[in-house]
Amino acid sequence: MNLHNCVLCPRNCHADRINGQTGYCRQTNEIKAARAALHMWEEPCISGLSGSGTVFFSGCNMGCVFCQNYPVSHGEAGKIISPERLSEIFLSLQEQNACNINLVTPTHFIPQIKKALETAKSNGLSIPIVYNTSSYEKAETLKELDGLIDIYLPDLKYYSPVLSKKYSSAEDYFSFASCAIEEMVRQTGKPVFAPQNLSFANRGEDDYSGPLMKKGVIVRHLLLPGCMEDSRSVLQYLFSAYQNDIYISIMNQYTPVSSFLDSNAYPELQRVVSPSEYDRLINYALSLGIENGFIQDGETCLESFIPSFDCSGI
After folding, report:
1. Residue 104: in which H helix or E strand, if any?
2. Rounded Cα gap, residues 137 and 257, in angstroms
3. Of 1, 41, 108, 235, which is most buried with the most CB atoms under 10 A?
4. Cα-Cα-Cα-Cα dihedral sign, residues 232, 235, 238, 243
5. pLDDT for the residue 206
């Protein structure tokens, strides 16, 4: 993992990040993060009652045009920290009763995160580690994390190279993402769950009290407006490849963030997904035989669900 000539991800930028150059991710070799806090809006078996200890890293190697986290993904928000400080953040989140440590968009900082995890684990970090990614990854890079990651939380955004090129400038997305997910499943095996600690105060009647995931893979797929056929292809591929050895999270939370999205270039993305569209995709998933999955309901397509990237906890 030579950051003098960075080829960590499929972009193969060859940037000398050690000497301050940046590639597609817009980041040098210095870790930059925009938020570290308990996060309640992941899948129930990830957030649990106390929240997922989520660290949002700045920059991104994907660059989707519809990104809801634009300020952090484009590297504008965030603060430079050392690997030593990152390990302290992990331990602090554990002390706050986080269900796990959730690494969001970590791809371009894998060498530094690996060091921070090793340090934190040697100092008592014991909760599961979640790797939360777009899946535009190299399988050989992910192999460097074998034994450090307990739960992989990857997207499978597209099946079609036409869509992945149009919305993410990554025509080869599916070929890399499918291989990356295969490596994730190899590392973690079948899902493992365990009861969570239910002793937290002020627990409401509707709060999730079920088991927490301790090991495994949950693949997320976000339904985009007008992309029903591609979404069906994604689900069909995942079920054909893994049956119910993984969980699939089918998401309806697409939010057209007007301040970031180019309405002239992408007019088709200027609306939310309708309930009937989402219902059709869920019915298709059921018809395939998908049993291990998550669906969303309620007002999930609101900008109020997007966290504040104010360097809290950093």
Report:
1. strand 101-104
2. 26
3. 108
4. negative
5. 72
